[in-house]
Design a protein that fits this description.
GO molecular function: DNA binding
Number of strands: 3
Radius of gyration: 25 Å
Keywords: DNA recombination
Number of helices: 7
Structural class: mainly alpha
Protein name: Class I integrase
Largest sheet: 3 strands, antiparallel
GO biological process, one term: DNA recombination
InterPro entries: DNA_brk_join_enz, Integrase-like_cat_sf, Integrase_catalytic
């Protein structure tokens, strides 16, 4: 309604009303995020299995964003200290998260599956994984090493040149 009054007096009647400009504008309402109950989370996770279930459990248990989970590298998991390093998350910042103890055995199994993929790629002479530009220039062979491999590797290879 305020915008309509400002338009009407300013553009239609060509009248300047400075006091009308001083009226505070209402703040847009902020939507609250949808929060699932623990029972709803259990039901949703019940529909998933294998790698997808582990990925969802990891995101839920740590609060990671999907993109952060997909960019997780082997070297980012520290089982000895119970931490996960998220690199270049929101705002291009790094942070450390607690690794849920309940997921440690499943994550170790996931790493053994990922290692099998990595060994197969190495045997087939595949080019390795992409690295941030500065690291790629400084350590050109790092993308071929196991620590830089993805925890949740894609099951098909990229055709990007």
């Amino acid at each position: 309604a305020l915008a309509a009054l400002l338009f009407f007096y300013g553009k239609v009647l060509c009248t300047d009303l400075p006091w009308l400009q001083e009226i505070g504008r209402p703040r847009p309402s902020r939507r609250l995020p949808v929060v699932l109950t623990p029972d709803e989370v259990v039901r949703i996770l019940g529909f998933l299995e294998g790698e997808h279930r582990l990925f969802a459990q990891l995101l839920y248990g740590t609060g990671m964003r999907i993109s952060e989970g997909l960019q997780l590298r082997v070297k980012d998991l520290d089982f000895d200290h119970g931490t996960i390093i998220v690199r270049e998350g929101k705002g291009s910042k790094d942070r450390a998260l607690m690794l849920p103890e309940s997921l440690a055995p499943s994550l170790r199994e996931q790493l053994s599956r990922a290692r099998a993929w990595w060994l197969k790629d190495q045997a087939e002479g595949r080019s390795g994984v992409a690295l941030p530009d500065a690291l790629e220039r400084k350590y050109p062979r790092a993308g071929h090493s196991w620590p830089w491999f993805w925890v949740f590797a894609q099951h098909t290879h990229s055709t990007d040149p």
